[in-house]
Amino acid sequence: MDAMAQAALWFWLPVALIPLGTWISLSSKGSMQRRMGQALALFGFTGVVLSPWTVPESPSVAAGHLLGFLVGPAALLLAGLYLVAFSGNVAVGKLPKSDRRLGVMAFIIGFVWFVGMHWWNLTPSLDGEVNRYWLVFWPTFLLLLTCLCSGAALSLRIIGDRRTKESNVLWFVSGFTFSLIVLAMTIDGSAVDAGSFRYHLWLAGADLLGTAAGFAIAILVFGGVIMLHERSLEEPPSVHPPTSKEFEHVAAIVSANLGGEESE
Amino acid sequence: MILAFLLPLFSLLAIDLSLGGSVGAGADSLPRFANALLTAYTLGSLVLLGNLFFYADSRQRPLAPLFGMLAAAAMGLLTSVILLDNTDMLMENNGSIRAQIMYNIVHMLVSAGAIILAFGLALGLTFATITAQKARKTSFEEE
After folding, report:
1. Whole-angstrom distance, CA of residue A84 vs CA of residue B34
2. Do B135 and A60 touch (CB under 8 A)?
3. I need a surface site. Which of A38, A220, B69, B134 has the fewest CB within 10 A?
4. What's the pTM value of the predicted model, to 2 decimals?
């Protein structure tokens, strides 16, 4: 089997199984099909994470290698937020108060883990070099997170009613992430120096801008295609107005269902 | 609100310029922007094509919009191939057109992962800060 076919079988097929499995599990009504979709997605995910061992010669497997590194801290961050959010004042699915502390702890460990991947020796490295996709992921994540938190903080203040406290928390997170970026721009990490981070930060900026523009154009084209198709359809045949006999029939049904005793 | 979203970006730009940087990547940002745009457009069109296919039940699955979206996605791919083949403008340290296209797709998947995680955290944090506050009581005055 040549290298291309091996990469297709051991990397690209598992990659394709993740969205396919997710789609099946989300759109199916039967529990059996849903479980099958989840199993497919999990199978694909495992295949991608294992790709550095199954097809080590393919350059694309660096993404699988990075995914393996990110699963731990990302899961801790999201699980921590879930525990914190649902142990608060929620109407449904409320968790016990003790989960709040656990959530905060998980969130902090997750964030420290991520920070350790830049400044400590946890940096994802493949064949003795920093994983090239880590230099894509880390600046993109930090840049977008600080911008989103800043936008969300002001939105809460403008749209929300008496949300100053919540807005301040988001300003703090945005400011904290911003200071992490500034620190990475000025102080060398364990494997990524400040100059390299600055270089990749602006590539991440260009990347985000390009991605947003590309998706926006795709959505516009999608809308255009639907509009052109709907315009080309013939007018549906209009029905005749109701006759007086039909009106009488409707009136009889309505009057039969009106009335009753008033409840106190 | 858009300004609040862009404020950290402009601040970082100012800091980078004051540190004596020439906005980091400089000329390399343009191929990255163009590659990201074309890849996001092509992959986005394919996702929307799938959406059109599976959610068109109410219209008895017409073929015309499907072909329209397929043509739109193919145009994105074709534009990428033509630009990569005829100019060096979009090439980024990759040996061949095929390698560059594969790199673009994997790069987009990694960027999408970072974007999804950042969105998840920002939304989760907003929700968590709101639910962390004490329940409010709304009192209605009797007329």
Report:
1. 40
2. no
3. B134
4. 0.83
